[in-house]
Amino acid sequence: MPVTQFAVTDTYEYLNGFGGYKESEAVEGALPLAANSPQKCPLGLYNEKLSGTSFTAPRDDNLQTWLYRILPSASHQNFTPVPESSPNSLTSTTPSFGKHFNAIPNQLRWDPFDFDKESSWIHSLHLVAGAGDPTMKQGIGIYIYAAGATMPDKTAFYSADGDFLIVPQHGVLDIRTEMGKMLVRPNEICVIPRGIRYHVALHDNEPVRGYILELYQGHFKLPELGPIGSNGLANARDFRTPVADYIEDYENTEWTLYGKFGGNLFAAKQSHTPFDIVGWHGTYYPYKYDLGRFNPVGSISYDHPDPSIFTVLTAPSIPHGAGTAVADFVIFPPRWLVAENTFRPPWYHRNTMSEFMGLIMGNYDAKGAGKGGFQPAGASLHNTMSGHGPDMQTFEKASTMDLPPTKVGEGSMAFMFESCLMLGVTEWGLKTCQKVQETYNAHSWEPLKVHFKRPESSKRGVSNGERRTGVRSARDSADFSAS
Fold first, then answer.
1. What pLDDT shows up at residue 332?
2. Per residue in 298-340, pLDDT tens?
3. Regarding beta strands 64-69 and 46-51, do their DSSP bridges make them parallel or antiparallel, or are they unpaired?
4. Cβ atoms within 10 Å of 230's Cβ, excluding its own
5. I need a labelling partner for 266 at 20 to 30 A (CA). Which of 248, 257, 446, 452 fits?
6. Per-residue confidence (pLDDT) for residue 477, from 0 to 100
7. Domain coordinates of the chain in residue numbers?
């Protein structure tokens, strides 16, 4: 089905299409004609430029938006650090250059993360893993969020550290951004670029939970399609950007603006709402996407391609070479498998990329489900060059089953944050959350059976028994005699 059947209807308005120039007016005539910065802006508005890239970035990569607002964003008091005792504090600051990150080769899997019914958006952000340093605009951070309350009235939040790619697992996020409003439901994602201010409300007071990848360097793009051609995977037309929507609140009022800066949280008071943009135009804005509209491709003969065919968004890492990403967002949607004489689940592999997986709903076809398995709201991390693949039960079944055309993943959606970086895990992720499955290896791979049978005529290789009894192959004997 090309569109997800959501339980909650989205009544907000959007502009369609990924990237490129867009414009929106909440009041007709808010945008000036021709000039971006006339001597006097229409309707008595202030103009302000929001830059997501350097001014001189190549045209195809340049991200700049002109905002026409009631008061400029610069109009606020000084920022001060938010104390840890505040209900709006960050639960964990961002470690810099690996400090306080635990970079370990072990395969890790987490049970479903708990709801936190007392926390609103900011305090619910738990840093699980990452690499790099936002002050150097290098690397990524991976968060779990679990909130049970709407952000307080007259508050707003932004991250100066990076773009937030938000993946809801449970509950609906009602997000008011500076550019307009978005309703983001499970099986949808949204991206809120660096610096854009927003407020998160809960829909019908239902708790929310999900995953976030914060991208410290660059911005997300659609992957190149290569031989696939001009259509497929995440089609550009299915991305949606909010339209201008503003609040008039600038008399006898006080708002609190929270800013995540260098991994720490700061707050500033201001005498007007941050959500006062009456019109905007440019190339830098938030957007959302329905994962149910993803158009998978795959093999129709034998074997199956690499999981890169499931990439929704990518953030290239130029220093690491062409085709390498500091972050890929990959999904495993419902799809048909028809490959003949093929082991259909993902093969065993070791990857130069690190793979953090989450499960939005249903069961993942390469892992056992249920208690102790890979469950919705849980996660796994297979770090750089750490071996992984199907668990024993999945292997035994997949290597002996009949292979008719099969629909897999119905009612399921797994995803992966993949990165060329070696990811470290925080103390919260390893210990504090108390969700790490200590028996992950024992459950998944230690029980794997030996199916090897050496042909009687084979003369290559040495069995354990031969070594114990001193029996040598002809080659070993020849080598020994010549020494």
1. 96
2. 999 999 899 999 999 999 998 888 889 999 999 999 999 999 9
3. antiparallel
4. 6
5. 248
6. 45
7. 294-445
Give the predicted TM-score (pTM) of the model: 0.93
Q: What single DSSP character describes residue 393? A: H
The answer on pLDDT for 368 being more than 60 is yes
What is the mean pLDDT of the segment spanning 445-460? 87
The string of pLDDT tens digits covering residues 213-238 is 999 999 999 999 999 999 999 999 99
CA distances from 323 to 316, 353, 420 (A): 7, 12, 11
- pLDDT (tens digit, 9 = 90+) per residue, 31-89? 999 999 999 999 999 999 999 999 999 999 999 999 999 999 999 999 999 998 898 89
SS3 per residue for 4-57: CCCCCCCCCCEEECCCCCEEEECCCCCCCCCCCCCCCCHHHCEEEEEECCCCCC
CA distance 405 to 346: 17
Q: Is 115 exposed, middle or buried (0-12, 13-18, 19+ CB in 10 A)?
A: middle
Query: From the annotation, which residues make up the binding site?
Result: 349, 355, 364, 388
Mean pLDDT value of segment 160-184: 98
Domain 294-445 sits in CATH at: 2.60.120.10
The answer to whether 304 is a known catalytic residue is yes
Residue 394 is classified by DSSP as H
Binding annotation for Fe cation: 349, 355, 388
- Residues linked to residue 129 through DSSP beta bridges, in sequence order: 142, 425
Residue 200: φ, ψ to 5°? -110, 120
What integer pLDDT is reported at residue 475 of this predicted model?
A: 47
Catalytic residue among 76, 123, 281, 304: 304
Hey, what amino acid is at 137? K
Is residue 174 over pLDDT 80? yes
Q: SS3 letters for 418-445?
A: EECCCCEECHHHHHHCCCECCCHHHHHC
Spatial CA neighbour of 198 closest among 183, 211, 213, 208: 183
Residues 255, 268: Cα–Cα separation, whole Å: 8
CA distance 197 to 160: 10
SS3 365: coil
Type of residue numbered 404: P
**For 352-367, b where at least 16 C-beta lie within 10 A, e where not — what string?**
ebbbbbbbbeebbbbb
CA 204 to chain centre: 25
